Amino acid sequence: MTDLDNTPAVGHDGHSAMAARFRGYLPVVVDVETGGFDWNRHALLEIAAVPIELDAEGRFVPGEVAHAHLDPAPGTSVDPKSLEVTGIKLGHPLRFAVDERTGLDKVFVPVRAAVKRHGCQRAILVGHNAHFDLNFLNAAVARVQHKRNPFHPFSVFDTVTMAGLAYGQTVLARAVHAAGIPWDGREAHSAVYDAERTAELFCAIANAWPSPAAPAAA
Questions:
Q1: Smallest Cα–Cα separation from 149: which of 136, 160, 158, 159?
Q2: Which of 204, 5, 24 is nearest to 115 (CA)?
Q3: DSSP 8-state code for residue 96
Q4: Which entry of 15, 152, 177, 189 is annotated as an active-site residue?
Q5: Which of 46, 61, 68, 88 has a CA positioned 20 to 30 A from the CA of residue 110?
Q6: 95 close to 46: Cβ distance less than 8 angstroms
Q7: Beta bridge partners of 52
Q8: Quick one: which of 35, 116, 39, 27 has its CA closest to 63?
Q9: Contacts of 111 (CB under 8 A, 6+ apart)
Q10: Distance (Å, rounded) from C-alpha 215 to C-alpha 218?
């Protein structure tokens, strides 16, 4: 298990190291599984979020995953072809699915706690094709009129771009492999599994990239 320091490290400007590194934003990896590709029409069925933390050496590491299985919200639809891809079985008792508002709270509460712990102002969504995840998240927030969404409404960190720059790969499985991270295709299309691997990918790239230099003293 990674040795995490629950006391935020302090950056050169007096802010926490995480807040100083990302302009007051906490990167949080999000992956969703859905009932199709249209966020205005198709249901959000599963969501997982992994806050990025700092270990004792100040390196980025994946934090604890928060996730929820969701019942399709009223007024949304599910394309059966999407279920063939994800393997989701709607109505299965072991899904322990909840309504959309409850599911968002299961994710937002620990994300807000992580934002506060790192002295950040809000979370910024990290994802592989991140705007897909953000659009479904924002649609769900609008449906339930959630007032405490911790995520920036339109800015993201996209690991497609990051992995394309770092490894010349844009497909998640290939980018993860290029980063030396194990990948099990049988587990793919689970929000938890994809979020965890995407978090490892983000950390691998971010840790290899030099932090901005502290400003020179006046």
A1: 136
A2: 24
A3: -
A4: 189
A5: 88
A6: no
A7: 62
A8: 27
A9: 28, 49, 51, 66, 123, 150, 151
A10: 9
Q: Is 146 a catalytic residue?
A: no
Q: pLDDT tier at 215 (50, 70, 90 boundaries)? A: very low
Alpha helices in 71-180 (DSSP H): 80-86, 100-117, 130-144, 159-167, 172-178
> What does the alpha-carbon distance between residue 202 and residue 163 come to, in Å, rounded to a whole number?
8
Alpha-carbon span 210 to 194, nearest angstrom = 26
pLDDT digits (tens, 9 = 90+) for 76-100: 999 999 999 999 999 999 999 999 9
d(CA 186, CA 204): 23
Look at phi and psi of residue 192 and say left if phi exceeds 0, alpha if psi is from -120 to 50, else beta: alpha
- Integer CA distances (angstroms), 187 to 51, 149, 193, 194, in order: 21, 29, 6, 8
